Amino acid sequence: MLLGLLVACGVPLCPFAIVTRHPCPGCGLTRATLALAHGHVSEALRLHPLSPIMAPLVLAAIAYNAAVYVKDGRIAATESVQGAWVTRLGVALAILMVAVWVARFLGAFGGPVPV
Fold first, then answer.
1. How far apart are CA 104 and CA 106, in angstroms?
2. Nearest-angstrom CA–CA distance, 74 and 94
3. Fewer Cβ in 10 A, N or C end of the chain?
């Protein structure tokens, strides 16, 4: 209930945003994912330009873990999805997220998303 009240009052829940009063590299991704779910692609891209890439990846990871949990009754172990390609993909996405974050502060992609 308290969390819902904070959200309704517009209090930022991101620790980075609370401390710095600036958006973090992932700020806007949740709102962008919801916009994508409603079919509002342009709104999603405005909120976070990487949302069409990140949202399906996160949803796939959640679905994979849910399937493993239902099948085996356990959370998927990291070693079951480990591999050089997973590490490279993760590093590449992290670098891309930071690059977009910096570019937004420089005015690209509509500038920083509101916190």
1. 5
2. 28
3. N
CB 2 within 8 A of CB 105: no
DSSP codes of every residue in 91-103: HHHHHHHHHHHHH
Tens digit of each residue's pLDDT (9 = 90 or more) over 26-81: 888 888 998 999 999 999 999 999 999 999 988 888 888 788 888 887 776 655 55
25, 16 in Cβ contact below 8 A? Answer: no
Alpha helices in the chain (DSSP H): 2-8, 15-20, 29-37, 41-47, 51-72, 84-105
Tokens of 31: 């709102």
| Ramachandran region, residue 40 (left: φ > 0; alpha: ψ -120 to 50; beta: rest) | beta
Q: Residue for token digits 């806007």?
A: 28
